[in-house]
Amino acid sequence: MSPLPRCASLLSLIILAPGVLAALEALRQEDTLPAEAAFALDDACHAGNENSETGSCDLSLRQLRSVLAVDSQQLDEPTKNMTLTGSLGAALPLGHPSASKVYPKYPGFTLFLVEEFDAPLDLDKDPIWTWSDGGLKEGQVRFVKEQIKFQDGKMKIEVQTNHGSQQSCSNAQSEDVPHKPLVAGELRTRFNMFRYGRYEVRMKAPKVQPHNPNVDGNFVSTMFVFRDASFKHWREIDVEVTGRAPGAISTNILTADYQAKWKPSMQETDYPISYQHMNVRAEFHDYAFEWLPGVIRWYVDGKVVREKRNDRLAVPDKSAKIMMNLWIYHDAKPFVPFGGKHLDNDRFPMQCEYDWFRFYKWDGDHHYPPADMSSKSLTEDDMYLTSNNPCDGIPQIGEVLKNGQKLKPCKATCR
């Protein structure tokens, strides 16, 4: 089969027109560019694809990467005149879906992003995902890239003893983080560009001790959306599986502006004693939430377990990052307030597993994610203190709020 029919069979939106060769060449050269230059290319319009009405790209290199997996050397001369037209929707879902799977459909939602974790993600080059170098004030864990592993068709986040040393400055926290006794991982999207939709994950929480899923301990295993934390707009919607009990699942919402420290008034949590019929450490389970204007619904194994509407705390309406992590609460004897009171039972390494992740965009949201998936479509507020680690090439713009003062964020270096 010649290259043209082969490409057309994969991408029905391909038509003959000039322009794609330069984009392919840029993609091929990307690995030789500095990180900041490569990300600039990702977000750039290339010639002939500027939209004069919207001021955005009809086709960015990030979009091209998502829909065209072919090198220019495979194309013969007539085929080199191809380009892509139409909306990004023609290439959905983004990420790494499985060609053999038929994905569920939900009225009013469009499947936008899928990660099957069948192959490793390059978290320094992936156009959507990256890693965090943060560390929660109330946690014993510092997040590092190496603790996010891709094995056996799963993403695995592992907590283990910290035998190394990390820079004190954390880009994800925008401030210095003291040395932590443990390391773990946090997968996150690069930008605050996700909002209303359905977020789903299939995951298995850690065993506190090997081979025994019934031993209670302390951990927090998550899938959530998050923005900014304490320095401007703290917005958070959580699914958290904890070490309190074999069926311990909590759902949270946090909303605050310019709050330097967490306060009970900024959080609403549904914290049931336990789901008695399930063991979240022994089996995989499906967790989801639908985030819509004025309402959030959480699901466990397809059943609604909570609905939250605008009342004491308003449902967030700002864009956010998607995150998944595993962490351990600090040792606050004799009482550990979150994650499980039997912290002394913990044995390391401890590992949670993610089978897949899916994001369905709500069809009524015409702003997020941006049509071209580029950061240039985001607002200045979206980009406030949005760097995740010192190697992501994202400038850290904004100020840290501390003790009533606005301070410059710390600076870490890429190693």
Automatic annotation (TrEMBL):
GO MF term set: hydrolase activity, hydrolyzing O-glycosyl compounds
UniProt-listed GO biological process terms: carbohydrate metabolic process
Signal peptide as annotated in the record: 1-22
Residues covered by the GH16 domain: 70-365
Residue ranges that the Swiss-Prot or TrEMBL entry lists as coiled coil: none
Keyword Membrane belongs to the record: no
PANTHER family to which the protein is assigned, alphabetical: GLYCOSIDE HYDROLASE FAMILY 16 PROTEIN, GLYCOSYL HYDROLASE-RELATED
Protein name per its UniProtKB record: GH16 domain-containing protein
Organism of derivation: Polarella glacialis
Upper classification of the organism: Eukaryota, Sar, Alveolata, Dinophyceae, Suessiales
